[in-house]
Amino acid sequence: MDLELLEEAGLKKIKSTRNEPFTYFLKAIMAGFYLGVASILSYSLGSIFATIDPMLGKVAFAVLFGLAFILVVFLNAELFTGNCLTTIIPVYTKKLKFVEILPNWIICYLGNFIGASFIGALFILSGSLSHQLPDFLSSVLVYKLNFDITQLIIRSILCNFIVCIASFVSYKVKSESAKVIILFIVIIAFVLPGFDHSIANMVTFAMGITAFPSTINYSMILLNLLFSTFGNILGGSILLALPLYLIHKPSLIKE
User: Fold this and answer.
1) I need a surface site. Which of 152, 153, 220, 234 has the fewest CB within 10 A?
2) What Å distances lie between residue 38 and 28, 134, 226, CA to CA?
3) How large is the angle between the packed helices 149-172 and 2-19, nearest 10 degrees?
4) Which one is predicted more confidently, 169 or 151?
């Protein structure tokens, strides 16, 4: 039953990409917007509480970032990282070939990039929290742009493994209040340790480019997005999706 839920969702997304690519693209842009909104909240709280204590700022940043995924789930937007789980299931069940899901991933990723980057840049251009935000944002950028590649990939794998668990929960749980609570809690599990979510990183990097255009390291941004995206794909499509497929495969064969 679990596998059928994910397979149905994946097939629906691929069909939507084929039949209504522009509409799907807009949904992906909106998902980027929603991550941007959650980032505004998280960076605002984080930067304010960081003036009291840096660790308190980090906790404040993490606690409410789950808003992004609640908005994506409840407002029917399309997020690349979650799609790494749902769209790969029909490939495992041989309903689709891998090349058939690539247009979905590309359209979704580009839409997320546009939405996330736009909101991140607008937040900085607004001038809000101009006394607190630059120092807090700078500390996040230092962490994000000074990385060991192996560690970055592992952080990204763990990130989307957790994100896709949240996505899986959203398909399984029927109660809307339960979904909200579980999503909030699960998302804290990847934000608090500083794991890398490629789309959330786009918001951060857009903020950094807008705030510090002359000092930002553009090549490191590209490398971060490259390896965090790769890790996110592995985390959702293999680390979570493959075991789920293997667990439920006997029942499908029996049927």
Assistant:
1) 220
2) 16, 18, 23
3) 100
4) 151
Alpha-carbon distance values, 214 to 63, 128, 208, 211, 218 (Å): 32, 21, 10, 9, 10
Asked whether 204 and 120 are in contact (CB, 8 A), the reply is yes
Can you give the pTM of this predicted structure? 0.94
As a whole number of angstroms, the distance between CA 4 and CA 141 comes to 40
The span from the CA of 129 to the CA of 195, in Å, is 25
Residue whose token pair is 């390291």: 217
94: how many CB neighbours lie within 10 A of its CB? 7
Phi and psi torsions of 225, nearest 5°: -65, -40
Q: Are 229 and 154 in contact (CB under 8 A)?
A: no
Give residues with Cβ within 8 angstroms of 87, minimum separation 6: 10, 13, 14, 96, 101, 104, 105
Q: Give per-residue pLDDT as tens, 21-74.
A: 999 999 999 999 999 999 999 999 999 999 999 999 999 999 889 999 999 999
Q: Which residue has the tokens 């809000």?
A: 128
Query: Token digits for 154?
Result: 């592992």
Percentage helix, strand, coil, to 5, in the chain?
Answer: 80, 0, 20
Coil vs helix vs strand at 213: coil
Token pair for 179:
């979904």
Q: Write phi, then psi, for 119 (nearest 5 degrees).
A: -70, -40
The 10 Å Cβ neighbour count of residue 12 is: 13
How far apart are alpha carbons 47 and 178 in whole angstroms? 30
